[in-house]
Structures are given as structure tokens and as C-alpha cells.
Amino acid sequence: MGAVLAAVLAASLAGCSSTGGKRAEERAQQAAEGRSAVNTPRWTFAMVTHSGDGDTFWDIVQKGADQAADKDNINFLYSHNDEGQQQAELVQTAIDKKVDGLIVSLAKPDSMKAVVAKAVKAGIPVITVNSGSAESKAFGALTHIGQDESIAGEAVGDELDKRDRKKVLCVLHEQGNVGHEQRCAGAKKSFGGTMQNLYVDGTNMPDVQASIEAKLDSDRSIDAVVTLGAPFAAAAVKAKQTAGSKAEIDTFDLNASVATGLQNGSLGFAVDQQPFLQGYEAVDLLWLYRYNQNVLGGGRPVLTGPQVITADDADALAEYTKRGTR
Q: Which of 202, 137, 136 is nearest to 174 (CA)?
């Protein structure tokens, strides 16, 4: 009898596993083809970020959000502005459209506080993403998805110590961005050497390069430069070469160019916060809330980073950076 029951149970489990696996494959295929994998209503979700024009980091965030929206039968609207007041106006536009869910970044929380409160008061569920983990709960958001910027900064400081660096330049490309300040402050806190901030105009890449070059040229004791975004790492590498500096170039965030830099040794390490995951999970969690009142995080941020990436990891990730998902 025991043997018979065991056989029946095994067959049953095998059938469930086979069916579940087949369904999972079908849903994955549907999402890849831009077809919905669910039959829930076609809700409209808006994402409004502080991205500037041409920022490849946010291209990856948007790609993740687009894929989740396809899977979840969501009408997805994306807009952005790197000025706090203009970003707030875009959020107001989404409120006026009576969207079913809202995703916002809080790089400049003072500019966003009032309009996020309006969305919450209007009954629109809000999820914050990337920036604003400290303010998210107080502003009434369901949860925050991203990395803790202070913790990420501390991870950089620890890595710099492992590499025996002594004097580091932390390059901030967007003044007023609280997340950027937290990154450099976190790195300074855990780093055993000395660190100074350099503010540059991130909308003007030649200016970024010239500013870093001038600093490296005037202070030969700087042995590492940390940029806060992948596009600025390339400018720092060029500045190092022109200045004839031996400083190591390290960066926050990952893209195909950074992966190549890690492989060829022009970059030391990168800190990945998985932007694709931020976009994907933000849309997916809003869908889960609308569909089933699910909330993740328990009042705390859902962390997507930091992960320190070195040359040892670059080969495995290069494929994904080239397709724009890492």
C-alpha cells in the first residue's frame, strides 16, 4: 500500500511540476513577445523620474518597467525631468489623468513632497524607486525599490580600503540630488583614507572631463576617482589619460561600456544597483497591489543593491549589458 501511495504521489507531483513549468514557459514567452500573461483590467501606471536626457541608466530602468507592463497588461506612461519643480508638474499631470498607479523617484524630495501627497489623497497607490528611501514611507508610498545609498557608499569605501587607496575624489554630477550626497558621505564614512567631493555639471560631458582632469593634474596624490553614474566613468578615464594620472577609476552603476572597462582594466570596480530590476519590480508590485493588495517590504525598502562588480564578474555580465538589461 505504501509503495502504491508513493507512486501515485510521485506521479501527481510530476504532473503538477510539468504543468507549472509549462505555464511558466508560456508566460515568459508571452512577455518576451510583448503579450500579456494575465487577464486583469488594463490599468494605467505612470512612472515619473528625475532622469536627464540621454541617461543610459534610466533607459535600463524603463526597459524593465516596459517588460513588466507587457506581462501585466498595463498601459505604461513614462516621463522625466531632472529639475525638481518640472518633475513635480509631470506627477501632477499623471494625477490629472487619474492613473491607476504611480512610480516616482525622489532625488529632490522637497520638490516632490506636496504632489506625492496629492496622489495619495486621490487614492492613487504610489511606489518610490531609486531615490528617496528615507522619505518614501513618510510621503505615503507603499514601498521603496532601490538601494540604500548610504550603505552603497559604505561598500565603496570598504572596497577602496581593500585596494589600499589613500586619497579619493568623489565626483557628483547633479547638485541637489540627496542620493548622490549620501553615496559620497557613505564612502567617506567607511573609507580609511581621505576623500573630497568634486561637483561637476553632468549635462556637459566635456566640462565633466575637464574638471576631473584639472583636479588630477593639480593633485598627483589622488589615487582613485569615484563617479556616481556609468556615463561619467568614461569621462573620468579620458581625464586620467590626459592628465597622465595613475589614479584608479571606479564607478557606481553598470552598462556595456563599464563592463568593457572592467574587462580591459581601465576601470577598477563598479557598484551595481540593478536598474532593470527597479523598473520591473516597481510595475509588478503596483500590479500586485491593484490585483491582490500585496505589499512587499514591511515598511522598509526593497533593496536591489549594492553589488560590487569587478573584472572577475564582468565576463558573466557582459552579455546582459549588451542587450541593455544590466
A: 202
CA distance 163 to 121: 49
Distance CA 42, CA 100 (A): 10
CA distance 243 to 233: 15
Alpha-carbon distance 293 to 206, whole Å? 48
Candidate from 49-53, 217-221, 267-271 with smallest mean pLDDT:
49-53
Q: Which residues fall within 8 angstroms of residue 99, CB to CB, at 6 or more apart?
A: 44, 45, 46, 77, 124
Name every residue whose Cβ is closer than 8 Å to that of residue 170 and which is 6 or more positions away in sequence.
Answer: 183, 184, 187, 188, 195, 196, 197, 198, 226, 228
Q: Which of 181, 252, 244 is nearest to 214 (CA)?
A: 244
Distance CA 96, CA 233 (A): 39
Question: For the segment 46-76, what is each residue's pLDDT rounded down to a tens digit?
Answer: 999 999 888 889 999 999 999 999 999 999 9
Residues 6 or more apart whose CB falls under 8 angstroms from that of 147 comprise: 273, 303, 304, 305, 306
Query: In this structure, what DSSP letter does residue 304 have?
Result: E
C-alpha closest to that of 271 among 180, 196, 199:
180
Unique residue bearing C-alpha cell 565576463: 315
Q: Are 112 and 106 in contact (CB under 8 A)?
A: yes
Cell 501632477, residue located: 92
pLDDT score for 37: 84
- Residue 229 · residue 238 · CB < 8 Å: no
Percent helix, strand, coil in the chain, to 5, is 50, 15, 30
Q: Grid coordinates representing 257? A: 561600456
DSSP three-state, residue 83? coil
The C-alpha cell of 312 is what? Answer: 572577475
